């Protein structure tokens, strides 16, 4: 990877046993922590920064796209975020780390004379892994490097069967675990010390009454414009810098064009075929805001599983979320904007709603009211693509002729429906430490999982990228807005406050203002002959899978070839991840 944070609770000689100094742009040594950083944007405005206290050997590293909240772009361009955080940290406890002054997507490493900690941002948008070694606890952003470190001290890491089963059935690994025993993650909204882990209390729901539309419009526009100004500051050292946007026909990326001054975005990229409604609308939106548009054609490379792709999943999430993976050579920009997770935080992607069942049509239609007795497992069965018909670890030893790490299994029979309910209920109930609302607890589960995080991980490693959804003001809005107001209607009204003409070209699959009306038309189009369906914004993975003849990877396992495409892609991901870490 181009960017990495790696460290050890120990001495510089301990660090040198594990990694070469040549791997990093900078290595800083504190009292009890040594940290190596590799980052092309190190010391750029609003990016990774470091600070060393020469008088006490303390240190601070703030890694990611991060700046001081409430300060002007000029201040954040000439002030070291790490130094400011360190000076606040000198009088900390676990409930008041001084992290509230940070804004963005980050990891913070702090070390003073008598205390050291690594902390995530409030939504853990940059994951950090850790493992125990004879020289001390080791941590880092690249899980494969922790595997390599462990291989120095032990023959072979063992598979964490629970994590692997979750990945194969849900496409994500829940909680703080990974698919390997002995390698874990810093908890959500959490921290790591030399001997402990724990959680902070920044991402806690506290609903309040205010003007939800006005506040959302103000905060969203500010979040986008501020990052646009920072990107221009970063580009001052490279006058030929090109800035791109991954643009769909939906709402979450077009608002970036609407909020930024015309000319900030040089090129918009959309994946698809030129004749599809999704691409045609995206082209019109780009032209509306004066940006060039490039269509990235769909090829079998859409399901590429090279090591350069595999590493961004960390074996925890599906590679299929890296939609642009087959176009690394075609995307010719230095900076990249995108709207990932805006729908998750601002318009209730994971909120259960009441439905109207029409037996004659054998169909449930969503209503606007929140579900009174939400069926949370059923909600996430659909959201996570739980393949109840594919008893992957029950009936099949999926890696019997594959990777060693993933060949173990208990042999205990598993009932898919029971497994679905027990797993989702366990993770859902864990959310009630941060909310007393069943609807917010459901939203929190989706936010914790961040199933599409590999999309962002690849972008942030390849380009100077910013995660707008991690903006502190937007997170505050999410936590303070009751779930019944985090709706498509609120979101669209806020977007119109930013630009009254933002919906000149509506998304082809959402011609109406409400989710309910769009779902009704979607159903009608399916059942009436001669009327085209809405289709989907994303390429057809079943079609691409067949065109690429990916069943050839299961030539020795005909019993697996009858599984769904989604299940086979998950098995393929896990297999290639296992092979990747074995050769590290």
From TrEMBL:
Domain Asparagine synthetase: 240-311
Cross-referenced SUPFAM superfamilies: Adenine nucleotide alpha hydrolases-like, N-terminal nucleophile aminohydrolases (Ntn hydrolases)
Highest taxon, organism lineage: Archaea
GO MF, one example: asparagine synthase (glutamine-hydrolyzing) activity
GO BP, sorted A to Z: asparagine biosynthetic process
InterPro entries given in the database record: Asn_synthase (IPR001962), ASN_synthetase/amidase (IPR051786), Ntn_hydrolases_N (IPR029055), Rossmann-like_a/b/a_fold (IPR014729)
Protein name from the UniProt record: Asparagine synthase
Species the sequence originates in: Halalkalicoccus paucihalophilus
């Amino acid at each position: 990877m181009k960017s990495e944070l790696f460290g050890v609770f120990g001495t510089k000689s301990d660090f040198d046993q594990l990694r070469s100094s040549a791997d990093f742009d900078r290595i800083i040594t504190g009292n009890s922590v040594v940290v190596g950083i590799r980052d092309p944007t190190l010391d750029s405005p609003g990016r990774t920064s470091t600070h060393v206290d020469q008088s006490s050997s303390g240190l601070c590293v703030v890694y990611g796209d991060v700046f001081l909240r409430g300060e002007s772009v000029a201040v954040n361009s000439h002030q070291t975020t790490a130094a400011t955080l360190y000076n606040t940290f000198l009088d900390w406890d676990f409930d008041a780390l001084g992290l509230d002054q940070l804004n963005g997507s980050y990891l913070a490493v702090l070390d003073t004379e008598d205390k050291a900690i690594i902390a995530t941002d409030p939504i853990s948008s940059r994951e950090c892994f850790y493992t125990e070694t004879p020289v001390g606890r080791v941590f880092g952003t690249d899980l494969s490097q922790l595997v390599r470190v462990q291989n120095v001290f032990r023959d072979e890491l063992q598979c964490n069967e629970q994590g692997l089963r979750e990945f194969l059935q849900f496409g994500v690994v829940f909680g703080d675990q990974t698919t390997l025993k002995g390698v874990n993650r810093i908890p959500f909204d959490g921290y790591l010390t030399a001997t402990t882990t724990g959680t902070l209390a920044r991402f806690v729901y506290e609903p309040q009454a205010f003007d939800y539309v006005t506040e959302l419009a103000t905060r969203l526009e500010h979040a986008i414009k501020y990052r646009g100004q920072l990107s221009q500051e970063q580009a001052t050292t490279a006058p030929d810098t090109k800035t791109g946007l991954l643009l769909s026909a939906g709402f979450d990326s077009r608002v970036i064009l609407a909020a930024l001054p015309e000319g900030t975005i040089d090129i918009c990229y959309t994946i698809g075929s030129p004749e599809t409604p999704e691409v045609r609308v995206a082209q019109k939106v780009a032209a509306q805001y004066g940006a060039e548009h490039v269509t990235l054609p769909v090829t079998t490379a859409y399901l590429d599983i090279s090591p350069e792709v595999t590493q961004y999943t960390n074996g925890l999430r599906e590679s299929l979320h890296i939609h642009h993976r087959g176009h690394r050579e075609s995307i010719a920009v230095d900076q990249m904007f995108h709207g990932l997770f805006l729908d998750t935080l601002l318009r209730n992607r994971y909120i259960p709603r009441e439905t109207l069942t029409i037996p004659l049509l054998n169909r449930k239609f969503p209503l606007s009211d929140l579900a009174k007795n939400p069926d949370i497992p059923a909600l996430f069965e659909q959201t996570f693509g739980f393949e109840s018909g594919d008893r992957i670890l029950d009936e099949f030893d999926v890696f019997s002729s594959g990777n060693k790490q993933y060949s173990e299994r208990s042999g205990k029979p598993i009932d898919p429906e029971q497994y679905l309910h027990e797993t989702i209920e366990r993770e859902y109930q864990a959310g009630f430490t941060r909310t007393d609302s069943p609807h917010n607890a459901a939203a929190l589960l989706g936010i914790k999982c961040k199933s599409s995080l590999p999309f962002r991980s690849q972008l942030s490693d390849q380009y100077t990228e910013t995660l707008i959804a991690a903006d502190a003001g937007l997170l505050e809005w999410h936590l303070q807005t009751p779930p019944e107001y985090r709706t498509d209607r609120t979101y669209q009204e806020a977007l119109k406050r930013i630009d009254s003409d933002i919906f000149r070209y509506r998304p082809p699959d959402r011609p109406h203002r409400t989710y309910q009306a769009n779902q009704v038309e979607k159903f009608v189009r399916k059942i009436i002959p001669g009327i085209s369906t809405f289709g989907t914004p994303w390429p057809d993975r079943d079609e691409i899978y067949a065109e690429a003849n990916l069943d050839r990877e299961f030539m020795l396992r005909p019993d697996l070839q009858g599984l769904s495409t989604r299940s086979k892609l998950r098995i393929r991901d896990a297999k290639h991840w296992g092979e990747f870490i074995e050769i590290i």
